[in-house]
Write a structure and sequence with these properties.
Blueprint lengths: L1 E13 L7 E6 L21 E4 H11 L6 E6 L8 H14 L4 E4 L5 H5 L15
Parallel strand pairs: 2-4, 4-5
Antiparallel strand pairs: 1-2, 1-3
């Protein structure tokens, strides 16, 4: 079943994007277009493959290995409003099924100015409810 949003890649044993061995999800879509971005292909929301229930199951299965420390989200921009609903569902599932796994998120957003209540940033949504 198609859930919404695309992703570029899943790395199941990544040591470059956070501490320890991690599962890394590269999401598609970014409006920041940062100078020097190392993955400008991920700016396109249609780039990559559709994120489905099967994709989420694949991530949970990879995270369940004892040697995996946690999940890293990057892209693209995980905090784009189009990416937040499915990532929120995935993160709730991770915290329910694998509560000892940590989560890292690489984003062009700043918590205080883009995500907290009262922000007028498009990244502040019903999903960020901070």
């Amino acid at each position: 079943m198609l859930l919404g949003g695309n992703y570029c890649e899943i790395k199941k044993t990544d040591i470059a994007n956070g501490s320890g061995v991690r599962v890394t999800l590269f999401v598609s879509g970014c409006r920041h277009h940062c100078k020097g971005c190392f993955q400008p292909d991920t700016w396109n929301f249609d780039y990559g493959k559709p994120f489905t229930d099967t994709t989420a199951d694949e991530i949970i299965n990879a995270l369940s290995k004892g040697y995996i420390k946690g999940l890293t989200l990057l892209g693209g921009e995980p905090m784009e409003p189009e990416n937040q609903p499915e990532l929120t569902k995935l993160l709730r599932r991770v915290k329910t099924e694998l509560p000892d796994k940590d989560v890292w998120c690489y984003t062009g957003c700043t918590l205080e100015t883009d995500l907290l209540a009262g922000s007028k940033s498009p990244e502040h949504s019903t999903q960020t409810k901070c």
